Q: What sequence folds into this?
């Protein structure tokens, strides 16, 4: 959201790279999901360990950041939400309550 846009939220969908999320199918039949820390975002925090979900389950993982420009010193903010289903999922899946909810949002001031 930007002040000059009257703080209207903007949305985008992006594919995560292997540097941002690690997905491993385990011999137990569960999916191990692990997010890596953004080295530039503040505050630095102890990351949540990997989360495991079974087929048919889904996870919502939320995290926010504050970034400081090295040139201007201005702050910018970002909040990421990962919605990930393991196995078959229909478009309405992510409108229901997640099987696992990991909330790593922090106070940014």
A:
């Amino acid at each position: 959201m930007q002040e000059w846009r009257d703080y209207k939220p903007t949305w985008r969908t992006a594919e995560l790279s292997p540097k941002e999320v690690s997905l491993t199918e385990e011999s137990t039949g569960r999916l191990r999901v692990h997010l890596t820390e953004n080295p530039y975002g503040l505050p630095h925090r102890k990351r949540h360990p990997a989360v495991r979900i079974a087929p048919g389950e889904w996870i919502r993982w939320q995290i926010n950041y504050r970034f400081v420009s090295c040139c201007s010193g201005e702050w910018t903010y970002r909040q990421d939400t990962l919605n990930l289903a393991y196995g078959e999922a229909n478009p309405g899946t992510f409108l229901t309550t997640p099987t696992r909810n990991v909330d790593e949002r922090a106070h940014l001031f």
